[in-house]
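Suppose you are handed a protein chain with no further information: no name, no annotation, nothing but its sequence. What can you learn? This example shows the usual starting point.
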Amino acid sequence: MKPIKVIDAIRLAKEISKVPDGRFTISFFPYNRTKGKASATLRTIQGCKVRAQLSRERFSIDGDNFFLFEDKEGNPKTCYQALIRFMGFPDDNYQPRKILFHGDTE
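A reasonable first move is to predict its three-dimensional structure. Written in structure tokens, the prediction is:
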């Protein structure tokens, strides 16, 4: 599966989320703000949709650093964009595609 740039993956996730049954899979390293570090264990969540920021959510840094989504049960989730490693989309039968960041090569 060909890698995809993070900006393109997020744009695709937003477009897919507009479709009633449009869902995606995401794999990322969770970040613990209390400890100030990311987990070494990759977390994968299936059946996701992009969501808007909730009124109760306040970020101490620029909100553009976060990717906001909900799981298949509708629970709000947040991750740092920089910690996203793979995303899967319906057109690829949800096969994980490596996420490329600035300066990354395939």
